What does this fold into?
Amino acid sequence: MTKKRVRRQFDAAFKVEAVRRMEERLAVKVPLTTIARDLDVRPEQLRMWADQLAAEPEQLAAAARAEGRAFVVTEDGLD
It folds into this structure.
């Protein structure tokens, strides 16, 4: 009998924080695969979240605030 894989769901606050950490660590030349492994997600998932955040920064930040975490969207990204 095969086990069904449970699909994990990540809230907006986690995604915003993951992208922020990814950007910080990429700036100091840490490989994306290492960053993803540390966050227990796939590298492609981090790229997708970063693209979503770049396209709709206010929407994702608003969702994160609604979950109880405050993020400020600036021209340079999230603070």
